[in-house]
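To assess whether the prediction recovers the assembly geometry, we first specified each molecular entity separately, as shown.
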Amino acid sequence: MELLLAVVVGGLYAAGVYLMLRRSILKVIFGLALIGHAANLLIFTAAGLTRGRAPLVPRSGAVSASDIADPLPQAVILTAIVISFGVMAFALVLFRRGWEAAGTDDTDAMRVTES
Amino acid sequence: MKLLLVLPIVVPLGTAALTLVAWSSYRAQRVLPLLGGLALLGSGLALLSSVARHGIQVLQLGNWPAPFGITLVADLFSALMVAVTGVIGAAVAVYSLLAIDAEREQFGYHSLLHALLAAVCGAFLTGDLFNLYVWFEVMLMASFVLLALGGGRPQIEGAMKYVTLNLVASAFFLAAVGILYGAAGSLNMADLAVTLDSSNEPGVTTVVAMLFLVAFGIKAGVFPLFFWLPASYHTPPVVVSALFAGLLTKVGVYALIRVFTLLFVHDVAFTHGIILVVAGLTMVTGVLGAVAQNDFRRILSFHIVSQIGYMVMGLGIFTRLALAGSVFYIVHHIIVKTNLFLVSGVVERLRGTLLLPSLGGLYQSRPLLAGLFLVPALSLAGMPPFSGFFAKLALVHAGFEAERYLIVGVALAVGLLTLVSMMKIWSEAFWKPSPHEAGAAESYPPEALRLMIGPVVALATLTVLIGLGAGPLFNLSLEAADQLLDRNAYVTAVLGSRS
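The predicted structure of the complete assembly is given in tokenized form:
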């Protein structure tokens, strides 16, 4: 399972970077989103996968640490997802304004701040 | 005294919220942020004096014991940074009253400003890596909106570049946090310092260290990751540039210094060697970039990059004196750089442009303003008796002690080039005769600009004071460096004496 997820994470990173290197700003946004997902899955995988167990200590009490899933990475990922949701929404609106202002979606044409 | 640790976060956050609530009242929208800025300054100074007297202060939020909950930690370095943030916050809050147009005020400029200040203080005070990520994101979100607010095409394009590269940095940061948690099983920095010491996989630790170097390096604007900075910092209103120039990159530098003194000291020759090389290249590329520019604010933007090199240089040399030099440099730089941008704002208000060829004659018409420019400009270049001289002196001295002659040579040469480009601004904007008809565009009577000149005078005075009385601040920096190097004290303060 770790191997499969590692390949998925790698694939997401590769696709994200490829999209970000394209000239269209829409693809840049998709690339950013994919890289965000890849980072989240990476946290999930790196922290260790526990199959079929909830991240809750059962009512009966004492258990060994291997019997429950680690809740912290899940909390971390949840927070990261919420943050990236907000940031993505902002970025989408900003890029749409950029497209309106520049009249093009080509990043190569957006150089008024650099010359 | 635990309250002092939350005040620098709660005060600006509360100000932001109250200002939002008072949306409809123009008066409240202007008075509240001003009070908030001054209150932040007060709480920052109170925290600094408390930490200087009683040592490292720790607060476990929600009373969860250390590695499980979120911890706020203020050592001397953090407290110094928070205090300087207060100074800048207050100066910018006053300056904004005149410099920001009513339309931006209406769209929540003041709230965003204080949300940004809260996030910056949060990043300085947190003792937890994931919490640091969250504060970074709060800071980014506020800065995104401030950068893009009310802008035409240049501002939007600058914001797009800024947003994209900062989101990439955040993704790096998040990935590094994930791998570190997988390797060490904790995200509390003090706990990590202990676990990483006994880690038997130095390779993984080094990989994570490099991921953090890239993530914080993008935020700090070091070579070769600084491209977003000169592409965006000159586009928003000047006061926003001033705030960003003073504080945002320095949060990146702070994070670099924090993780590379507390967590990643297992292979100093390798990791800090890389940092030192990066520092040298950052100085050189920044200053050479500035030479080619012809716009007041763009020259200043490139100089931020070059100055970041000096701060990182102290971390790269990694001795007591070098770290003290870095701390001193950051404090000095935040004040001076913000002030230079604020001066450029006054110039823009007077002449309507910041392009050097169309400026001129300001020394004749505004000798006071010219003097106010010279103080931070000479300080930035490291001329005695201003603050920059002592900052550079400490770093150069530390470099000689550690026998790193190459980086010392680079630092001195870059200082000279900095002077050259400050003199370029001086001679173009202030000294040469105005290219227009005499007094053509200066419709402002001096007293109308009082709210903008006031903060500039205050910051310039501070620069002179730090220069003339460098002793006390330098002793504080030395103490801060001692605390940074004494990891056990930090760990004991956070985790108790069990380890």
